[in-house]
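Ticket #4471: complex job returned nothing on first submit. Input attached below:
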Amino acid sequence: EVQVVESGGGLVQPGGSLRLSCAASGFTFSNYWMHWVRQAPGMGLVWVSRINSDGSSTSYADSVKGRFTISRDNAKNTLYLQMNSLRGEDTAVYHCARAPAPLKYAMDVWGQGTTVTVSS
Amino acid sequence: DIQMTQSPSSLSASVGDRVTITCRASQSTSNYLNWYQQKPGKAPKLLIYAASSLQSEVPSRFSGSGSGTDFTLTISSLQPEDFATYYCQQTYSIPRTFGQGTKVEI
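Support reply: We reran it on our side without changes. The output follows.
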């Protein structure tokens, strides 16, 4: 079964750090661009970051640039999001998603998400 | 950044109704436009990619059209399981922006 499963969320104080993981299975992980998308409580979907298939190119939303780092380990079929200097507005469910080129990079496989709560 | 604006933000409909949701981009996205469905507490589900291509295993009552800046998602005959929030998204450029969502309610 093709799937991605996020983990690593939790409660963290403002200014703290957290590392999210996304474990992929059922497909050749190293062939795909991957993304992080977040959704604050009661709000819409917001794109956070993306990484290309070999990890050589990354992009970030302005709201997280300089604080978050996306990376991947293709040998472990795992995507990461290192989140530093966390703020209250980073509170959200964080989803990872696969984005195949033949679908014009639409996100066709999503995880259920991991919840990050930033609060003192 | 390309801004995506959906309308309406919410709508009330009945089973069997034809429903149309529109999405406008602040600049051309060619046909790099996708539609997702999300139910409460669930991950988004890809419905339509490349503006008009139906994702595998998505019912044929869903269709998409448009190119450039103006796009439409149509549900030809609304079913009980279609009550959800729908998002458009452009994948033409970074950042991959989403519309604000359209909630389809009874």
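The interface with chain B takes residues 35, 37, 44-47, 50, 59, 61-62, 95, 99, 103-108, 110-113 of chain A (CB under 8 Å). Closing as resolved unless it happens again.
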